[in-house]
Specification:
The protein is an alpha+beta fold and about 600 residues long. The two termini are about 45 Å apart.
Length: about 600
């Protein structure tokens, strides 16, 4: 194989179509890191691959890097910066993984190597997959139009039908079996009413599985469900059956893989799961849970029962609920319990301490009222619990439960309402807030749960020793990596990047520290991404970080204030400017 080179005697470097074809002829399992010339291979996993190779010591396991720019077979991967690993056995694609998710990559290598050895030694049949992420522009536009139409118009489920929520989990998606599972779902007679691919944030996963919060596996479950994309489906009943929830649970089999293989070997979990946590698929536990999960994932989804009420179509909607500081401190769990008992799903949840400026901005329409100074003091006195609640007619239902805004009137006329029940002593300000209309609800939800981009930089001083750990923590904290680039900044670029510090005495040293080696630039997306990333980094001075935020990245990895491992913009405007400087325009 003329022209091939070794990278640390571990990964074969493939840079043209001829080398690609020669590589696919190699016997065994080959794990290929597909990259673009401008960003290079994923260095974050090299040590992991070396560790796996040393531990397994298997001559049938091969690693390679492939430059998409000059390989015809990888044309559709060009221009994509997300780390992508292709698993080939016998020249055929058997699995795909996107993202530098070290634990999942290690599990997939071990699993796929076992499967390939079974094929070679026992004559088993390979399960060939296609990369679901590779769709042409026309297909992508059609899919986006379809999903947009679902959001705008919703789908009506007839009263004569039952429905349930199904999830094809990240392990099955990463193994490339999502399409195969979907075909089996349809072959079994289930009707797919809607289908969406999405990667859950940590907050979403925690809320979705809140009923398992006290179980020992909860943290592992949340980390797993945020490790990559899932397929979310709404299924309607099979022909001749009145309860799709029970049918679907029977079809997927028991949650425990060994039990599924023993009692229902034809079930999806028996066929595609690897262990209890990585059991490939999810199904709603009962019809009530199905309703809650439907509202969680598809708040615009409409049911016939709502459409039949007064001859009008009333969809599942969201409203903002605020539990003000005294209520959040004294009655948080009781209020949350009653919210769930009232048929609401908590779609989003966030605890935040507001500044006076933020309170003024949120309650600008009340600024001239006599009670505003008391409201301002109350709302900025401690953490507020913000909730996005979802259900049919959420806005009006939540307002009716709250009762009158005037605490005295609430106690006299509606003593059973929330504002009467949870009044704080002699306070004039009630302890709960609700949106007044669906339009106001969406504005207020966006105020507390904005989707943001921010720029994260892993500096040269942290690249060698801490890059893999930092990347893993970024993902485990619910961030989506929208763009990623490993680069060495020129002095001119570093000076422009830190131009706001040009007049500072440490400017030259700061620039030197950023030019001394490769760094990694990432665009992170999450609700409140700028604040979340700054909190995760900790104070710029590592000594201060160790004192005030001992678990932060800088407290653990920084050596001094110049070599402090990571960087992040201080506000949303700076984040947009830095992202544009490094990556140009990106889609929101």
């Amino acid at each position: 194989m003329a022209g091939k080179k070794k990278e640390a005697n571990l990964q074969t470097s493939v840079t043209n179509q001829e080398q690609w074809e020669e590589m696919l002829a190699i016997k065994g399992l080959t794990v290929i890191d597909v990259y673009q010339r401008w960003c290079g291979p994923c260095r974050a996993v090299v040590r992991l691959l070396q560790k796996i190779k040393n531990e397994l010591g298997d001559n049938l396991l091969h690693f390679a890097t492939a430059e998409a720019d000059n390989i015809d077979a990888l044309e559709k991967y060009r221009g994509k910066c997300e780390p992508t690993f292709l698993f080939y056995g016998g020249g055929e694609l058997v699995a795909v993984l996107r993202g530098a998710n070290a634990p999942l990559l290690q599990r997939m290598i071990v699993d796929e190597l076992k499967k390939e050895k079974f094929v070679l030694e026992k004559g088993g049949k390979r399960k060939v997959v296609k990369d679901d992420g590779l769709v042409n522009d026309e297909e992508k536009v059609e899919e986006e139009k379809f999903q947009q139409s679902l959001q705008e118009e919703g789908i009506i489920v007839p009263a004569s039908k039952s429905y349930t929520v199904a999830i094809i989990k990240p392990d099955a998606v990463a193994h490339g079996t999502a399409d195969e599972i979907i075909m089996k779902i349809q072959d079994a007679g289930f009707e797919i009413l809607t289908h969406e691919e999405r990667t859950l944030t940590e907050a979403e996963a925690q809320d979705f599985y809140q009923h398992k919060a006290q179980e020992a596996c909860f943290e592992d479950l949340v980390q797993f469900m945020t490790s990559g994309p899932s397929h979310i489906l709404v299924l309607s009943q099979t022909e001749g059956s009145a309860n799709v929830v029970l049918d679907w649970r029977k079809f997927i089999g028991p949650a425990d893989i060994e039990e599924a293989r023993r009692e229902n070997p034809e079930s999806l979990r028996a066929q595609y799961g690897t262990q209890t946590l990585f059991n490939a698929v999810h199904g709603s536990e009962d019809s009530d849970r199905a309703s809650r999960e439907l509202a969680f994932f598809f708040p615009s989804f409409r049911t016939a029962s709502a459409a039949e009420q007064d001859g009008k179509e009333e969809g599942v909607e969201r409203t903002l609920a605020l539990i003000r500081p005294d209520g959040a401190r004294d009655n948080r769990e009781v209020i949350l319990s009653q919210i769930h008992a009232s048929g609401f799903t908590v779609a989003l949840q966030r605890e935040v301490t507001l500044t006076e400026e933020q309170v003024r901005q949120f309650y600008a329409q009340h600024a001239q009222e006599d009670y505003f100074p008391a409201l301002l003091q109350n709302m900025s006195s401690g953490p507020v619990l913000a909730l996005a609640l979802a259900r049919t007619g959420a806005v009006n239902h939540w307002k009716s439960i709250l009762g009158p805004a005037d605490v005295s009137k609430a106690k006299e006329e509606h003593p059973e309402c929330f504002r009467a029940q949870f009044a704080a002593g002699n306070e004039v300000i009630n302890q709960l807030h609700g949106s007044s209309s669906p339009e106001e609800a969406e504005q207020e939800i966006n105020f507390f749960f904005p989707k943001q981009h921010t720029l994260a930089v892993i500096k040269p001083d942290a690249m060698d020793k801490h890059r893999a750990e930092i990347l893993e923590e970024i993902q485990s904290n619910g961030f989506s990596v929208t763009q990623l680039k490993e680069t060495i900044l020129s002095r001119e670029m570093a000076e422009e990047f830190y131009k706001e510090h040009r007049d500072k005495p440490f400017f030259s040293q700061l620039v030197d520290s950023m030019c001394c080696g490769p760094c990694m630039m990432l665009v992170l997306t999450k609700e409140n991404a700028v604040e979340e990333w700054r909190a995760m980094m900790g104070p710029a001075d590592p000594n201060q970080a160790k004192a005030s935020s001992p678990n932060s990245l800088r407290a653990r990895f920084a050596t001094d204030i110049l070599h402090n491992s990571v960087h992040g913009p201080s506000n949303h405007q700076h984040a947009e400017e830095k992202i544009h400087f490094i990556f140009g325009d990106i889609s929101s």
